[in-house]
UniProtKB/TrEMBL annotation:
Sites where the protein binds GMP: 201-205, 325-326, 374-377, 381, 400-403, 476
Protein name: tRNA-splicing ligase RtcB
Family the entry assigns: Belongs to the RtcB family.
Organism: Methanofollis fontis
Assembly and oligomerization: Monomer.
Length: 477
């Protein structure tokens, strides 16, 4: 472990005030001894830098999938006081509301006799890859409504059922959405991309529930051994990227006007109450709503394929849940000054609210929010549930995935995509992508082991395993 870092318990570590000049609070991160070798010094430095921002509450936090990112480390969590704090695009990232959802089906593993045929049909149906365009033909008015209303827009347009709305984090809509600060260029980029998977680490995966750790909670989530599910991982596409780009330009100079000193220009920020801060927050929320619609339309496309191929009724394929892992939201949490409102930034981190909270769907309130943790291509994914411990220690947050340990460039040089595909097929996993390069850069070896990451949050009590999912087929952007 790096010099100066103090171990708090078996999986929690503290970066003390003074690790970098200007820290207002300590940093805390969660990591096991066997994952310690993956810890990047740059990521720890970024964690400490975040602790320098005004209005930060208690700690700058990072989950066990921590690795270096833009400004904030990926895996980072920070809560800023609603009155004295700031908002920073670096704490959200370029892919606003990149997130993941799980769709349950009545299919069993034995029903998937031709996984390649199913993958090919899904690949033909769901637009995939850089610049992929949707079959939706949207007007400017449609796109504005989509960004304002979120998932409800999609359901009312025929791309889902009413129950899908309540089974999304925030019911698939941030109220703060404002299309006025969304640029014309962002509109242009978003117009053709609603309902597309995109590229990079985004995926659509066929999975089998191969282990159940908590039968009672699994039953509440509608999951059982041998069941086939579909996982969707994507975000706000070019629209969200453009929103981030546009507002970073503004905030890179705005912090000086408000007398805010930042240790890294990538931590550009503005007070939440400032015109610049409010403009970014409104545009970011609009992009987040777009991302929820994007995943909803893909869900609709998956259901249509399964209807055609297996004769399953649309209503028999419920959405288990949809979680965001790149977003900033206003939430109420406990502090030394009592219950207060904070702008919680989660960048590569997942909300993990515990039992009994009104933000958790009524169907799951007794057990806590579903937490969906995707693995890397070829490794297990998990469904966990949120806990009261997470509410106390991490503002209701947990990890978001496996976390990279190898850059995309390095991964492409390490193993050809054809070899990765062959190796996965030997494990019974069919992979389809736009190119071999797309497969190579997302090889399982480029990521931490999801089993180990999930074990850390389990030991820390931030979220507890419910089921494990084994991949059978993967579509990569």
């Amino acid at each position: 472990m790096l010099a100066g870092i103090q171990q708090i318990d078996e999986v929690e570590w503290e970066v003390p005030v003074g690790y970098v000049p200007g820290m207002r609070v300590p940093g805390r991160f969660f990591l096991s001894d066997d994952l310690a070798e993956t810890l990047e010094p740059d990521a720890v430095h970024q964690l400490a830098n975040v602790a320098c921002l005004p209005g930060i509450e208690r700690y700058s936090l990072a989950m066990p999938d921590i690795h270096s990112g833009y400004g904030f480390p990926i895996g980072g969590v920070a809560a800023f006081d609603a009155e004295s704090g700031v908002i920073s695009p670096g704490g959200v990232g370029y892919d606003i509301n990149c997130g993941v959802r799980l769709i349950a089906t009545p299919l069993r593993a034995d029903d998937i006799t031709q996984p390649r045929a199913l993958i090919e049909e899904l690949f033909r149906t769901v637009p995939t890859g850089v610049g992929a365009e949707s079959s939706l033909r949207l007007s400017h008015h449609d796109l504005a409504a989509m960004m304002t209303e979120g998932v409800r827009w999609a359901v009312e347009a025929g791309y889902g059922v009413e129950n899908d709305i309540s089974h999304c984090e925030e019911s698939g809509r941030l109220d703060a959405a404002d299309t006025a600060p969304v640029s014309k260029k962002a509109f242009q980029r978003g117009m053709p991309q609603a309902g597309t998977l995109g590229s990079g680490n985004h995926f659509l995966e066929i999975q089998e529930v191969d282990a159940v750790f908590d039968p009672e909670t699994a039953e509440a989530f509608g999951l059982s051994p041998g069941q086939i599910c579909f996982m969707v991982h994507c975000g706000s596409r070019g629209l969200g990227h453009q929103v981030c780009t546009d507002h970073l330009r503004v905030l890179e100079s705005a912090h000086k006007r408000y007398g805010i000193s930042i240790p890294d220009r990538q931590l550009a920020c503005a007070p939440l109450s400032s015109p610049e801060g409010e403009a970014y927050f409104g545009a970011m929320a609009a992009a987040a709503n777009y991302a929820w619609v994007n995943r909803q339309v893909i869900t609709h496309q998956v259901r249509q394929v399964l209807q055609r191929m297996f004769g399953i009724a649309y209503e028999e394929m419920p959405l288990v849940y949809d979680v965001a892992h790149n977003v900033a939201k206003m939430e109420e949490h406990s502090s030394e000054r009592g219950r207060r409102r904070f702008c919680v930034h989660r960048k590569g981190a997942t909300r993990a609210f515990g039992p009994g909270l009104p933000e958790v769907p009524a169907a799951y309130r007794s057990v806590g929010q579903p937490v969906i943790i995707p693995g890397s291509m070829g490794s297990h994914s998990y469904v966990l549930h949120g806990t009261a411990t997470a509410m106390e220690r991490t503002f209701g947050s947990t990890c978001h995935g496996a976390g990279r340990v190898m850059s995309r460039t390095k991964a492409k040089k390490a193993t050809p995509g054809s070899e990765v595909r062959k190796h996965l097929l030997e494990q019974g996993i069919v992979v389809r992508a736009t190119s071999d390069a797309a497969i190579a850069e997302e090889a399982p070896e480029a990521y931490k082991e999801s089993d180990k990451v999930v074990d850390v949050v389990r030991r820390a009590g931030l979220s507890l395993p419910v089921v494990r999912l084994r991949p059978l087929g993967v579509i990569k952007g």
